[in-house]
User: Fold this.
Amino acid sequence: MNAATVIEQAGAFVVMGGGAGGGFLAVKWLIEWVAGRLDKREARIDAGTDKLIQALERQVGALSKRLEAVENSLADCQRKHAESEATVLRLQAILDGKGEIAQRAQAIVAADRLAAVQEKGG
Assistant:
């Protein structure tokens, strides 16, 4: 082997090594660039998801407070309704009692009139 052949072969190896290294660096850069873009996209999606979750948590909190208020109002309405029903039953009993009293009074008045008519006629 002569020196020129060795230099040519060494140059070929250097060029091949440089090309392989450059190709490796280019592929590495391309992969990192794609991965970086995917990471940025993922970060945007994560940020959007976090905002959505926070908004939903606020809505759930507001709805929980509203539900508690509605349940309290419902319990109050149920209590008032029960009181109203009791009052209606008491008033109905009073009216029923007055009806009986009126019937008895009418029977007494009728008996008195009948007695009075019989005394006059008899």
Summary: Residues 3-121 form the longest helix (119 residues).
